[in-house]
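Tokens for chain A. Residues wanted.
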């Protein structure tokens, strides 16, 4: 294989995730690739640059963080995601110690699981995941109506609560600064009488 023409590891990982999203078996169809994975990666790069960590590793973790959810469904996707990531990254000859850190990022990315975040890389993935939600309010609405069967009032309250929790749980003040205008808009549009 000509080294110049060989795809870099981040492209290989992104292509793998896109292929999985395109499959008819993908649990949430192709939409998450454009509407969730891409913005998470963009925010993860922004934070990786800001905090001077291994950008490649953070990008790979961002692409893979929800892969378990795509292939097997949401339940335990932090665990299934680790297994899938380990297998794929070994196939791509990614260094073993870096694979372990990617797995830590995937395992601990679910705020609702209350895991401790030890490393900057883990905090970056969790913050990027939360920030991306603010760019896809329509996706949260879709989930509320379609998957959770909420009525309009319940959906409005649910969005407000979800995004308020996401905002309050951000690790970095830098993340809060980035998203503050959008969070203010959430309060204005969905805050109702609770604001
Ligand atoms: Fe996510």
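Reply:
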């Amino acid at each position: 294989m000509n080294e110049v023409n060989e795809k870099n590891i981040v492209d290989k990982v992104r292509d793998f995730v896109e292929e999985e999203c395109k499959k008819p078996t993908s649990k949430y169809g192709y939409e998450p690739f454009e509407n969730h994975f891409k913005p998470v990666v963009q925010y993860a790069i922004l934070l990786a640059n800001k905090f001077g960590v291994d950008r490649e590793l953070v990008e790979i973790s961002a692409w893979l963080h929800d892969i378990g959810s795509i292939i097997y469904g949401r339940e335990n996707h932090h665990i299934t995601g680790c297994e899938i990531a380990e297998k794929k990254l070994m196939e791509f000859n990614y260094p073993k110690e870096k694979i372990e850190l990617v797995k830590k990022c995937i395992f601990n990315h679910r705020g609702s699981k209350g895991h401790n975040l030890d490393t900057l890389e883990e905090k970056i993935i969790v913050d990027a995941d939360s920030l991306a939600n603010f760019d896809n309010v329509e996706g949260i609405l879709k989930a509320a109506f379609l998957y959770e069967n909420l009525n309009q009032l319940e959906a409005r309250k649910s969005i407000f609560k979800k995004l308020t929790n996401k905002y309050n749980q951000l690790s970095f003040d830098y993340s809060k600064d980035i998203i503050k205008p959008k969070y203010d808009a959430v309060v204005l549009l969905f805050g109702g009488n609770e604001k």
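Residues 69 and 77 are 5 Å apart (CA to CA). Residues 31-51 form the longest helix (21 residues).
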